[in-house]
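We both want to read discrete structure tokens more fluently, so let's practise on a single case. Would you write everything just below, so we can both look at the same thing?
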Amino acid sequence: MPLKSSYSEQLKKTDESLIALLSDRISLLAALEQPSLDEQLADVAPLLAQAGIPESVWAGVINSCHASLIPKSAINHVSPRQITIIGGRGRMGRLFKEQLLLVGHNVSILEHEDWEYADQLLSQAELVLVSVPIEHTVDVIKRATKYLAPNTALCDITSIKTQPTQAMLEYHCGPVMGLHPMFGPNIKSFLGQKVVVCPGRNDNSFQWLLDLIKSKGGELIVCTPEEHDQMMVIIQATQHFCRFSLGVFLAQARVDIEQSLTMSTPNYRQEIDIVKRLFSQNSNLCVDIMLATEERCDAISFLANTYSRLAKLVVGKDRDALIQEFENTQRFFEQKINNFLQPLNTTVQRDFKPQMHINISL
């Protein structure tokens, strides 16, 4: 019992010191131009690794400190706007509805059974937000624009941007913008989350929406629709395929996940958590992300061929060839290491340029 009491005292003193340090941190943040989450993580990444603290824990600290600085006046006093979300009963649509209602906007929903009321729901809207599955996005845009006023702001939140943005610009004469929330619908707010912004026409009409996302702790990355889609081939499509494949393998091999977690590394637990979250989503959404464009399908095929080639080396126990593959790739990462260590500039800007071109040779 005395030992337990001693540990409790130590914990209490540690918490007191931590609270004092957090107070200092918040005060320092208030006096600075807010650095991005990536910048703050990059600054301490070696220390976190040395201490054995997952980056997710520190990211939680950073986001909580940021949240404490957001003035309630910034999000509680807005001029209510009339907004219609097409697909607003979907999970992402519901998230945006909740966030917009929370600050006082008026939000209506248009689902596939509501098109007989489209004129009423769309013609008076100041913002129409399209949140429907990828394969229906362009058709829904074409259909919706027939009812829009010339000054209605039209925006989509699909995970591909080139085709939807082109369709909005072609079929609507008013303000147009493409957004891609780089997170799933399970989050509770925009705090610490990234949103890609693809300007289309009359960007100022969307400034209030972008300011709302920023005021709630979101980070905005501006690029062209083409740049976005090129990056998403790697960032989204191939990653989905990797985790989709791992999940299928674990299920087919009937791996005892619970037992594996009892003796797992932090990286394995993190990967299983990511796979679990992937398979908690809608199956159509996951598959559509992989099949959305020919470029995505080609990249996934190239990745699968790479897996197959390396697997043959493993089956053939070709140690020298595997070491050569490792060292070639090691040199690639060493050449890029300075770029990797530079935190992303996630403020709103117009000079974002991808640093890679995907070279796929099948």
